[in-house]
């Protein structure tokens, strides 16, 4: 897949290490997922996905419980899921997923982040056709052969299995997300280093050092926005 998944995740986690921003965003995402159905992950698959992600980012239990309690209570706060697409330096592609309770705030903020950092907004569909929705599940202390055997025993045919540093990363169809995790759990694996439903580019591009520096400023500006939950792109970032 050509994506250094854990490196990107660790960079984001490190960036947010001394702030509460990442936890606040998870709080909103958990609340919205819980409001879509029952506030019980066993009967609400969307909520279960979010909670699995939260676990890999070490979101405190208090944050999770607060969001679930809010969903169970009388709160009628509503959020819209909106996707924006655009271009960064040298034609790089960016997808921005948001959860917002104020559409009139979100769109101008996203557009401003693009415009101020060498990018431009595109129309719906201008970028997303070059990305594939993908389930990404990572485990530690296993070899590719061991993971392949676990998936074979569960009769799961996934897109790809790669080794990345000390992890084995499984790329699968979105609807295989829970099945892959259950296969691992049946094999005695209960902790995941990655558990994401994401958008992966079909092809990645490299930028010059100057263009990459500008691109990273664009991504940082987008991720800093309150309403932005996820940012996906097709740039192979160099350390």
Automatic annotation (TrEMBL):
<comment type="similarity">
    <text>Belongs to the TACO1 family. YeeN subfamily.</text>
</comment>
<dbReference type="InterPro" id="IPR049083">
    <property type="entry name" value="TACO1_YebC_N"/>
</dbReference>
<keyword id="KW-0804">Transcription</keyword>
<dbReference type="GO" id="GO:0005829">
    <property type="term" value="C:cytosol"/>
</dbReference>
<dbReference type="Pfam" id="PF01709">
    <property type="entry name" value="Transcrip_reg"/>
</dbReference>
<protein>
    <recommendedName>
        <fullName>Probable transcriptional regulatory protein GNP95_12545</fullName>
    </recommendedName>
</protein>
<dbReference type="InterPro" id="IPR026562">
    <property type="entry name" value="Transcrip_reg_TACO1_YeeN"/>
</dbReference>
<dbReference type="GO" id="GO:0003677">
    <property type="term" value="F:DNA binding"/>
</dbReference>
<dbReference type="GO" id="GO:0006355">
    <property type="term" value="P:regulation of DNA-templated transcription"/>
</dbReference>
<keyword id="KW-0238">DNA-binding</keyword>
<keyword id="KW-0805">Transcription regulation</keyword>
<dbReference type="InterPro" id="IPR002876">
    <property type="entry name" value="Transcrip_reg_TACO1-like"/>
</dbReference>
<dbReference type="Pfam" id="PF20772">
    <property type="entry name" value="TACO1_YebC_N"/>
</dbReference>
<feature type="domain" description="TACO1/YebC-like N-terminal">
    <location>
        <begin position="3"/>
        <end position="73"/>
    </location>
</feature>
<feature type="domain" description="TACO1/YebC-like second and third">
    <location>
        <begin position="79"/>
        <end position="235"/>
    </location>
</feature>
<keyword id="KW-0963">Cytoplasm</keyword>
<dbReference type="InterPro" id="IPR029072">
    <property type="entry name" value="YebC-like"/>
</dbReference>
<dbReference type="InterPro" id="IPR017856">
    <property type="entry name" value="Integrase-like_N"/>
</dbReference>
<dbReference type="InterPro" id="IPR026564">
    <property type="entry name" value="Transcrip_reg_TACO1-like_dom3"/>
</dbReference>
<dbReference type="InterPro" id="IPR048300">
    <property type="entry name" value="TACO1_YebC-like_2nd/3rd_dom"/>
</dbReference>
């Amino acid at each position: 897949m050509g994506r250094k998944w854990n490196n990107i995740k660790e960079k984001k986690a490190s960036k947010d290490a001394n702030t509460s921003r990442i936890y606040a965003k998870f709080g909103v995402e958990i609340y919205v997922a819980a409001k879509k159905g029952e506030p019980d992950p066993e009967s609400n698959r969307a909520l279960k996905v979010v909670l699995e992600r939260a676990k890999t980012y070490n979101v405190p239990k208090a944050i999770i419980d607060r969001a679930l309690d809010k969903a169970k209570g009388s709160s009628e706060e509503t959020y819209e899921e909106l996707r924006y697409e655009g271009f960064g330096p040298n034609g790089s592609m960016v997808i921005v997923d948001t959860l917002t309770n104020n559409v009139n705030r979100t769109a101008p903020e996203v557009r401003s982040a693009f415009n101020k950092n060498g990018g431009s907004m595109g129309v719906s569909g201008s970028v997303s056709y070059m990305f594939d929705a993908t389930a990404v599940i990572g485990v530690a202390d296993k070899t590719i052969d061991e993971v392949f055997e676990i998936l074979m025993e569960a009769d799961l045919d996934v897109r790809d299995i790669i080794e990345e540093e000390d992890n084995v990363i499984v790329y699968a169809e979105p609807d295989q997300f829970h099945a892959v995790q259950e296969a691992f759990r049946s094999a005695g694996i209960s902790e995941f280093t990655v558990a994401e439903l994401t958008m992966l580019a079909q092809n990645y591009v490299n930028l010059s050092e100057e263009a990459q520096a500008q691109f990273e400023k664009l991504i940082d500006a987008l991720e800093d926005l309150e309403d932005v939950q996820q940012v996906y792109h097709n740039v192979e970032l160099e350390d």
